[in-house]
């Protein structure tokens, strides 16, 4: 699936014409490429406290070129705004204004990352105002960036220090090309749980993962990225998609399991397959999903019920089995596909939004069950992603949907897949019960 407009405004004569006419020119995003550096230039770390020093040390340990003060006219790969010690709104100014003064020097595909504390855990109103203020600044700044640069934040729950493993894992993810389509979002690190990989490009080495709905689209992309990161992958889809499913399994040297996830024995069949072939199951990616769009006034029971059955009821049933099974690793990781429609709602999608909002509820309520065993469950909420699902939208609606984000384009399946691989890694164990949007900062909803 490709975006012809984006291709035209970034190549040859049509690029020049678009420039002259002042048409919007969505940038080609900086995506993961193992042969490229983590960021496209030196990193500027702003902030004076202990966390700023600790994070600068982390970056140095990754052989990054770190600055604590801006050098005029030097192109920067990223700016880190460390604001975890703000106690009143006045405390926001020096780091924010210093970042502002360096924005013109931020390279294409550059990154801004804030580090802050949750307003909900502040002791007094002034501190809560300052912490919440970071959110307002970051989200606005993300709208202002150009050239495919993005701005996202890491929020450290009280009691979690800047040196927690998941802070490093989240920072690395946000700085890298893997977060290309994540913009204007926050990742909360809730604990010091987690273990960093021996190799950052093999973050899932020796793990066994299952991906549902993996015959095509986002699911197939997830299977490819999990495999690239070192996991053994079991791909699941309905029997009707068997041929495509087998092709994906062959490509990633994984195994295919034809099963409809709404069947009562779906989880047991997955567990049995994983135990027989790999002796373990560590990662579950609930990706399979369907749309049956209609205005509620025209909705029939089969449309409503099938969406609920596939998108949420099946996952609730399967999770119960996984959590009760010895075959599912104690430190198991579950990632579910929500949707921005489940956050903001979408015309014609009452059934789909009920199921996807349901995912968010399920993830929040399941997180405390997994935490004591070292496991985690999170949701990823994609915005507009270029797949068969969105190719079915009317052409004009599709064009508009693509431009309705700060990055002025739809995401690629690989963008969702990279975010899922991050959340499925042991480095991200301190991130639990969260919803992370992969939407290019879609203007719809929160
Ligand atoms: P897709 O329609 O291209 O692929 C979905 C896959 O799930 C298909 O291979 C299908 O056969 C499989 N599937 C459907 N019902 C199944 C069942 N009962 N058992 C097993 N497999 C089943 O969809 P996609 O665009 O790749 O979306 C993947 C996920 O991402 C879905 O959960 C979707 O709701 C979510 N999502 C997609 C977008 C987007 O823009 N494409 C946006 C938000 C959320």
UniProtKB/TrEMBL annotation:
It is an enzyme of class 1 (oxidoreductase). The keyword Cytoplasm does not apply. Residues 207-383 form the Ketoreductase domain. Its EC number is 1.1.1.100. Pfam families: adh_short_C2 (PF13561). Belongs to the short-chain dehydrogenases/reductases (SDR) family. NCBIfam families: PRK08261.1 (NF006110). This is 3-oxoacyl-ACP reductase.
């Amino acid at each position: 699936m490709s975006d012809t407009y984006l291709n035209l405004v970034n190549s040859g004569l049509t690029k020049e014409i678009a420039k002259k006419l002042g048409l919007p020119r969505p940038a080609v995003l900086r995506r993961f490429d193992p042969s490229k550096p983590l960021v496209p230039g030196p990193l500027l770390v702003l902030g004076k406290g202990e966390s700023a020093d600790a994070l600068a040390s982390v970056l140095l340990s990754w052989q990054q070129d770190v600055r604590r003060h801006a050098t005029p006219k030097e192109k920067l790969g990223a700016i880190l705004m460390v604001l975890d010690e703000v106690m009143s709104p006045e405390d926001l100014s020096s780091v924010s204004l210093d970042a502002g003064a360096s924005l013109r020097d931020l390279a294409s595909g550059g990154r801004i990352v804030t580090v802050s504390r949750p307003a909900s855990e502040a002791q007094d109103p002034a501190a809560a105002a300052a912490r919440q203020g970071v959110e307002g600044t970051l989200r606005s700044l993300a709208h202002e960036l150009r050239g495919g640069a993005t701005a996202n934040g890491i929020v450290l729950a009280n009691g979690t220090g800047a040196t927690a493993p998941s802070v490093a894992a989240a920072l690395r993810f946000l700085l890298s090309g893997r977060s290309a389509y994540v913009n204007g979002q926050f990742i909360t690190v809730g604990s010091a749980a987690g273990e960093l990989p021996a190799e950052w490009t093999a973050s899932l080495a020796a793990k066994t993962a299952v991906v549902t709905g993996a015959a095509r689209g986002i699911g197939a992309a997830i299977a490819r990225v999990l495999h690239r990161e070192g996991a053994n992958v079991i791909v699941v889809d309905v029997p009707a998609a068997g041929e495509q499913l087998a092709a994906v399994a062959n490509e990633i040297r994984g195994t295919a399991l034809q099963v409809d996830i709404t069947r009562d024995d779906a989880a047991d069949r997955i567990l049995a397959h994983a135990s027989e072939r790999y002796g373990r199951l560590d990662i579950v990616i609930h990706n399979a999903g369907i749309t049956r769009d209609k205005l509620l006034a025209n909705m029939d029971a089969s449309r409503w019920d099938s969406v609920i059955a596939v998108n949420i009821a099946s996952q609730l049933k399967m999770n119960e089995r996984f959590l009760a099974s010895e075959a599912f690793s104690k430190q198991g990781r579950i990632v579910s596909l929500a949707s921005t429609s489940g956050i903001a709602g979408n015309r014609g999608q009452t059934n789909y939004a009920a199921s996807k909002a349901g995912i968010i509820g399920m993830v929040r309520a399941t997180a405390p069950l997994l935490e004591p065993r070292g496991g985690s469950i999170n949701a990823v909420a994609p915005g507009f992603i270029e797949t068969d699902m969105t190719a079915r939208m009317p052409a004009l609606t599709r064009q508009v949907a693509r431009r309705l984000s700060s990055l002025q384009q739809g995401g690629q399946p690989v963008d969702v897949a990279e975010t899922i691989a991050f959340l499925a890694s042991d480095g991200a164990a301190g991130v639990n019960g969260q919803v992370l949007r992969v939407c290019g900062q879609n203007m719809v909803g929160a």
